[in-house]
Amino acid sequence: MKHRHLGEKNKNVTPIAWLSCTDFKYTGKGWIAVIDGDLKMKDLDKDIAWAKAWISNDKHTAYVKIHNGYPGYEVTPSLEIKNVSTIPVFLDYYIVNGTTLTKEEIKENNIVFLNADGDCKPEVLIQLYDFLGEQIDPGQGKERSWRIVVL
Predict the structure, then answer these.
(1) What are the backbone angles phi and psi of residue 23, rounded to the nearest 5°?
(2) Residue 23 three-state SS
(3) Which of 71, 83, 103, 122 is least surrounded, with the fewest CB atoms within 10 Å of its CB?
């Protein structure tokens, strides 16, 4: 497995929108909530936290691991999907922390909050940039980034 270091300088990020406890649904692996919102960012002089990203050997799963993360730390991984087949493909869903999220659930700039223990105090949020439902023709690719923030 090849690991890639992400980011060069640390940022402090806070969500502009917040959620209520009733927004969370249990997934069997943790609690998740999806709300409409955006993020406010400011650059920091810190260079404490860092992240690695890698793709599973079967090329079906992307992983991101944050090291020395602190509240407000943000990393922006990027993923390119290339169609190496002879027929067009469509991405129908993401799976985040065991929860399947479809195009109907994810709109542009939606924020996904992850709460491991169900205490209504999420530990991580992910801002997904949607490319679900887009056609990827043979030999073509699509690239998208998303933000992961330690809360």
Answers:
(1) -75, -20
(2) helix
(3) 71
Residue-number span of the structural domain to which 84 is assigned: 4-150
Tens digit of each residue's pLDDT (9 = 90 or more) over 129-144: 666 778 899 999 888 7
Q: Which of 53, 67, 71 is nearest to 15 (CA)?
A: 71
Q: How far is CA 94 from CA 33, 75, 98, 106, 112, in A?
A: 14, 19, 10, 9, 11
Tokens 């806070």 belong to residue = 14
Burial of 120 (0-12, 13-18, 19+ CB in 10 A): middle
Cβ atoms of 150 and 124 within 8 Å: the answer is yes
Contact predicate 115/24, CB 8 Å: yes
Task: Please tell me the distance from the alpha carbon of residue 33 to that of residue 116, in angstroms, as a whole number.
Answer: 12
- Domain tally for the chain? 1
C-alpha 93/C-alpha 5 separation (Å) is 26
Counting as low any pLDDT under 70, the low residues of the chain are 1-14, 16-17, 37-39, 41-47, 106-109, 129-131
CA distance 25 to 21: 9
Strands 78-82 and 89-90: unpaired
> β-strand 39-43 against 4-6: which pairing, if any?
unpaired
Write down the residue that tokens 């409409």 correspond to. 36
